[in-house]
Amino acid sequence: MADKDSSNAYWAANVRIIVISLAIWFVCSFGLGIILRPALSGISVGGADLGFWFAQNGSIYVFLILIFAYAAIMNRLDRQHGVEE
Amino acid sequence: MDQFTLNLLVVGATFALYIGIAIWSRAGSTSEFYAAGRGVPPVMNGMATAADWMSAASFISMAGIIALAPAGGYTQSAFLMGWTGGYVLLALLLAPYLRKFGKFTVPEFIGDRFYSGAARLVAVICLIVISVTYVIGQMRGVGVTFSRFLEVSTDTGLYIGAAIVFAYAVFGGMKGITYTQVAQYVVLIIAYTIPAIFISLNLTGNFLPQLGLIGSYAPSGGEVSMLAKLDQVVTELGFTAYTADTTNMFNMVLFTMSLMIGTAGLPHVIIRFFTVPKVADARSSAGWALVFIALLYTVAPAVGAMARLNLTTTFWPAATAGNALDGAALSLEDINGKPELSWINTWKDTGLLAFEDKNGDGRIQYFNDARLAPAAKKVADATKALVDARTAAGLAEASDLTAPEAVQVNGTEDANLKALQDALVAATAERGAITYGGKTIAELGWTANELTKVDNDIMVLANPEIAALPGWVVALVAAGGLAAALSTAAGLLLAISSAISHDLIKGSINPKISERGELLAARISMAFAIALATWLGLNPPGFAAQVVALAFGLAAATIFPALMMGIFSKRVTKEGAIVGMLVGLVFTAVYIFLYLGWFFIPGTAVYANTPANHFFGISPLSIGTVGAVLNFLAAYLVSAVTREPPQHVQDLVESIRIPRGAGAATHH
Question: pTM of the entire structure?
Fold first, then answer.
């Protein structure tokens, strides 16, 4: 059934985008903000070190970009697969 | 006009606004009561979600917890990342699919997807436990705010707040709440950012607090960064550096994760995405909510760091220009005489701040005397050992335990007593060798920390006063704190009442209940929930933000895994979901109760809530992540051995994955 194949392809593409987005989400918060902070303490953002800045400010900006990018990419994907409302 | 009258005027005016909106948009039907009708546009919905979401915990408590964290402000970054990063999960993993599903409540989705009334019932129980815990945190915040601005005790403040929350949530319903929350968002964001901008300009010369956080410290000529200045001042007084790294990275990761997945599993937040017009709107609504949340959350760390710096330089005026200990500590004369320091005494009256001139020098020395504690205990133990041994030897009380005569029996030195005396002398020397800014406490003339209490929850409310900002800013912050607490409490009460009246009574007990009867049941259950939360709020198990963090742990361990598996797996069965949620709920709740008391009742804790007692160093605040993992594992294992879901359920999962064909949200 062509319809079924198309919706499976749409779902697979969606899951791939989600996985990539969540990888960025993880690296910018848990990675740069917590786990990698000691290793990156030499790099500074203004008067703070990189890890401190990502933990208290930077990660939040990344989250915002991620959500709007995901919304835009999915709107395009919806149209490509003809499943938009 | 004095500060008290000004507070009353500003808070009164904002309340009149909210109540006016609530009456104007009073809910008439059940659908309006639960879901604000349809077609709330994404930006508006985002603003209301932000107000709903940012509670007393975000507004009043969070910056204070960061500011005064004993292990340094960085270690509390979990709150900042956790309470924002969850929206990414919401937008990517839950919101669009739940919108496509098109019903009203979280238990409805779980009941349909897991084709079982029992699953729906378990979800209702989880939801009630989560929401009641969350409301306790709000009540604490309301109590603190009212106690300050009405100048009454925290308990009286709590009763007044409970009465107002009740009146306001019972009348409004979701429709009233949505429009009121937009107004509350505006009040709270203005109240939070205006003092932050003033303070950032004063301390760093930066208009934007986000830049102030990483800016340079202006009063000392701008040669050091604000954070470096803060580190210098607090370490001089014996505190851990503000930017010090965490000593328990594992726990910090788990705590952050628990807050993130808890955010995505909070019923009163999820409910917001059921009612946007389209699936695409559900994705961007989460983004808009985060935009409005980020306006506060990127300012909060600056507020925390600057409040700590201002607090310290208030008590050590010399710290502004150089080292704290270059000059004398703040004098009692100044505290009682200078009008710009009157906040110290007004906060003292609430019982949330306390000071005591222990060494009688007329000044209040604020420093970290916890550093002295281990040595002081050694001295006390050694003193007791020597006194006991002398008593056993039949000696009379000595005026000076360290004199040679004190260890003589009949004129000759006793070897045993002498050894004990040597130990006492050594311990005393060890205590005396601890220095602050290069000087021992004997040289400084200190006995102990004299700023004996600064409650975390007062930092944001007192911040404008500490920074000597105009009276109207102080009043505005009080109004903002109340807006934050009220908007969230109302949203939560609505989630509780809809769970009871819609999912429990209409869904299982009495499906034929009339619309009027359902609304009545909703309002009665709200009253019960608020009474319970008030009673528990009198003896809260922690600061507002910590209590709220427990609610997130519970949400993380129960609702989020069930929803995610329901969408991303066709194979998870009703048995799997039910067992998973129960395992997550029981495990997480029991772990929390072990440390904080059974059902948060004071005095019933099994273990003291200290890091040394925590299993693998995991604090009760972080345990939700482990609960979530157990939920997933249990659900997959049970699903593997039970019969796969029926075809219509698998079709349902297929259909929610595709945006096309989403109708408006329907009732049944």
Answer: 0.89
